Amino acid sequence: MIGFTVVVGYGDAALDVLRHLPLHVENPEVVVVDPDAIALTGALANGARAVRGDGRDVCALRQAQTQFAARVVVAVPDDRDGLQITMAVRGLNQTAVIVAAVRESVNQELFTRLGADEVFVRARSA
């Protein structure tokens, strides 16, 4: 399973990030971690594997085999949760490329300092 992508949070932000990032040709597998059953149903319909759980929970990240992922997309609604997830992912996997979708542009540098390799600032919803 080396080379797969883990997506933490499967909503509009995750889909936007995935549209801009090519999946690894040698292994296009995606594993989605989300606590919401409806989001996971959408992920399954799009061909992903699903792990029901909170991305802040290291056990859920391990169940998704984040420690072996080539790339991890962190796309949760709250930037504080995203920071916590980014740090947890970096603790599990020193080599993965972490891509974070943030709501507040002022948090972009903080995400980078705490382990994100790429940060996308997404528009705030009305």
Automatic annotation (TrEMBL):
InterPro entries: NAD(P)-bd_dom_sf, RCK_N, Trk_Ktr_HKT_K-transport. Transmembrane segments: none annotated. It holds the Pfam family TrkA_N. Residues 6-120 form the RCK N-terminal domain. Gene3D superfamilies: NAD(P)-binding Rossmann-like Domain. This is NAD(P)-binding protein. It comes from Lentzea kristufekii.
